[in-house]
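Supplementary Methods, section 5.1.

A reviewer requested that the exact input to the structure prediction be made available. We therefore reproduce it here, unchanged from the version used in the analyses.
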Amino acid sequence: MKEFTYKIDLEDEEERIDKWISNTLQTLSRSYIQKLIKENNVFVNGKAQKASYRIKADDVIRFQIPDASEPSIPAEEIPLSILKIGIPVQVAGGTGWARERKAVPSEENHLKIQYYDNVLEAQCTLWAAKDSELGLPAIEYDPSKEETWGAEDASGRMVTVRVQHAKGQALASWEHGDYKFAISADVPDSQADTAPVPKMALEIVRQLE
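The structure derived from this sequence is encoded token-by-token as follows.
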């Protein structure tokens, strides 16, 4: 395991710690740095901190990087999303959470990725669109089962995810700047815990800047 120690200068004060590390060690991706922080490999003044922590002058930052190399992201995902809608969007798959990921033909400025959620045991679709509607199927959701989840994006802005349910369906949707996103799931078991749908949405929100 490699260990790094830095002392923060006044000019870097108030920057998010994940962004600061990303700028300092440019060989590591932002998502991988956030994973290190989540696994308590990053310390500020001897205390583990969240990715949203804003550094202060004279903070001593120490972080550890396992000897294993940074996990690779399938090369086709990032070019695909940049080509289609202009920003990188990834479906988490390295942990075995999502498999059988594939892009579905869609209109210009639209992105659609299908995947199988191993936790929910259901087929899901990620929808994304720039400056337009998503084109979701018309489904009547139960308003009594609606809920909201939230997470900060990579710049520290809070994003709210709307979660809706209908018979055999779950939907998590949110907006970010000029972009609209949604994850739909075909839920065969009415008693299934659909939490993996908004959880995947929050994983994607945390990538967005």
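The two ends are 29 Å apart (CA to CA). These observations are discussed further in the main text.
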